[in-house]
Amino acid sequence: MKTDLFIIGGGPAGLHAASVAATYGIETMIVDESFSLGGQLRQQTQQLRNLPKSFKTQTGTALAKQMIEKLRQLDVTKLVKHTMIGTYQDGRIGVTDGHRTIPISANKIIVATGAAEEACAFPGWTLPGVMTVGAAQILLNREYVRPGKNALILGSNNFALQVAKQLAEGGVNVKGIIENKERMEGNETETIDQLQKIGVPLYFNSTIQRAFGREKVEKVILNHGHKALEMDVDLICIGKGLSPILEPFEILDCHFTYEQALGGWLPVYSLSMQTSNPSVYVAGNAAGITDMGAILLTAEIAAVSIAESLECVNNADADKTRKLLWQELEQIESESFKRTFQARANVVKRFQEETDLSQVNGQ
Amino acid sequence: MDESTIICKCEEINLAEIESAIQSGAHTFDDIKRITRCGMGPCQAKICSSLVREIISQSLEVSLSEIGLPRMRMPLKPTRIAALAGKETSSSVVSVFAESAPKEGDES
Ligand SMILES: Cc1cc2nc3c(=O)[nH]c(=O)nc-3n(C[C@H](O)[C@H](O)[C@H](O)COP(=O)(O)OP(=O)(O)OC[C@H]3O[C@@H](n4cnc5c(N)ncnc54)[C@H](O)[C@@H]3O)c2cc1C
Ligand code: FES
């Protein structure tokens, strides 16, 4: 199969990039390994804050539906239940549906494979009943299954707090949120206020000493300051944050860099969201862990830049659009965490330095 | 965490085994993988990679940014051999796997 633009990942970043690209008249194909599009938005029932101007405030699930509907009206080829598993020596991408592997040749590629949740090891963490906050969220909001009766949340970033609140509202008794630092990592005041109203206790300077149980979690002992606290729980949700999914970038020969504020290792990219492999672009949480507003804006920047390089829009117009998008990105991203945008600027600077260096070396 | 805490779920490798690999000179994820099988399970290190790099960082007192990523190879996800082989003789399995052969300069 052949296409001008091939997008890997049908989450919010991939979906938005696809609709912007198709609007520019680019022949676009989008692939996702899941049986439906929407990515990790499909179980996000919370109201999304800080969306770009062109989006109205709504929940994650509503936004996913809206974007899928929009794509339906555009001329975009959608391949669900297809996984990108590698590349051929001639540069074509290998995609499999489980029965056969299909080579796809594309002029440009956007990798929008999102992020994976970090694990946290403690004695007993391999017992059934210990899962990530994302897994609990999928069970609750997508499968309508309560993942436990009495829960403990490990971690206090915004994502962990959102899930704590959703679990509590879904009838799970959230017995506590524990954080090893001395203050909260998350900063969404609304979620924090609501958790307080529900009466969920927060334990700072605390870690899990051990989880026990016969065949599944039944009890947990916490180190809380100098004291040991015991709790009966059948669900422990690990919310230790996210990191970009990197495998496709390595296979596509992209260079990596490290920025803790963006989730650790990630591909270096330019102001066009272009990686060190000129035909590969990046968008969404794969380009650094951030909020939904920034996820959508990076996707739009990638799509506009690809439209420019495929001559579907002239340089001056693309430049103007890109500048406005970066301005909005800086504003939205700095509003929640200043260091996230700072880290992003570092990534772009490093891309520039690499490019300058390779020009000096005549490569 | 105690010494018997499992770090790699898929291969059931515990903290003691990882620490002893570090004491024998391992300083990257791939070193530890070669010595212990940590990271070789069905998830292909998706779960244990960060945990192990954290342990290396603490034991050797180096920052996480200096501990490189595991080498990631094709196929990126568990894939049935039949799906790679196809039906034709000039099958894609050759080209898919050929690409994952070690490059020049790679440690074997
Ligand atoms: C379970 C889970 C729950 C989350 N819930 C929240 C939340 O409540 N609040 C919050 O702020 N953030 C949450 N996040 C973070 C999430 O990363 C972002 O909210 C957002 O969905 C990222 O958008 P994206 O388009 O970059 O990636 P995603 O939405 O993750 O989409 C990436 C898509 O790429 C596909 N894909 C990946 N690799 C391949 C491949 N090799 N071949 C084909 N397709 C592939 C995946 O199937 C997925 O559909 C959650 C993450 C996870 C994993
Ligand atoms: S947890 Fe180590 S390979 Fe899966």
Structural summary, described in words:
Chain B: InterPro entries: BFD-like_2Fe2S-bd_dom_sf (IPR041854), Metab_Enz_Cyan_OpOx_G3PDH (IPR051691), SoxA_A3 (IPR041117). The complex is a heterodimer of chains A (363) and B (108). With 363 residues, chain A is an alpha/beta fold. Chain A folds into two domains: 2-116 and 242-362, FAD/NAD(P)-binding domain (3-Layer(bba) Sandwich), CATH 3.50.50; 120-238, FAD/NAD(P)-binding domain. Chain A has helices at residues 12-23, 60-72, 133-141, 158-169, 189-198, 247-251, 292-309, 315-336, 338-360; strands at 2-8, 28-32, 76-80, 83-87, 93-96, 101-111, 115-117, 130-132, 150-154, 173-178, 202-203, 206-212, 219-224, 227-232, 235-238, 242-244, 256-259, 264-267, 280-282. In chain A, strands 1, 2, 3, 4, 5, 6 and 19 form a seven-stranded mixed β-sheet that branches. In chain A, strands 8-15-9-10-11 form a five-stranded parallel β-sheet. In chain A, a hairpin with a 5-residue loop joins strand 4 and strand 5 (93-96). In chain A, helix 1 (12-23) runs parallel beside helix 2 (60-72), helix 4 (158-169) packs parallel to helix 5 (189-198) and helix 7 (292-309) packs antiparallel against helix 8. The mean pLDDT of chain A is 96. Chain B is mainly alpha-helical and 108 residues long. Chain B contains five helices and two strands. A two-stranded antiparallel ribbon of chain B has the order 1-2. In chain B, helix 1 (15-23) crosses helix 2 (29-36). The radius of gyration of chain B is 16 Å and the shape is elongated. The interface between A and B is large, with 37 and 35 residues. The complex binds flavin-adenine dinucleotide (FAD) and FE2/S2 (inorganic) cluster. FE2/S2 (inorganic) cluster binds next to loops of chain B.
